[in-house]
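Support case: zinc ion complex. Customer-provided input:
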Amino acid sequence: MKSRSWPNGSTTAWRKTRRHVLQRDGSELDDKDRIITPGPCMLRIPGVCTHWATCVHHTADRLIVGDDPAYLIAACRACNNRVGDPTRPGKRLEAASHYIHTDLYNL
Ligand SMILES: [Zn+2]
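Agent response - structure generated as follows:
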């Protein structure tokens, strides 16, 4: 698990949130929060996506919304890295929003 990029990546609260979001979006986790069966990536960036969600992606500025599951989606690491950290200046989420909306309509 490479969750070190999140400042509180190892806190209990974040683990619970991550588990909730991954399960909501179709992943199966064991009781140690390890992914048994990954669900589908919700970002699905063409040419980037590896399909299977192994991490949780913030769709809004984390400094504003915190770790609210409403603003979190399961994503593969490739998409997550491509979209970047929304809390970083210059890395806003227009691209991600587009794919998220597309995805909702296709469900
Ligand atoms: Zn992806």
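The helical segments are 12-24, 62-65, 77-83, 94-106.

Case will auto-close in a few days if no follow-up is received.
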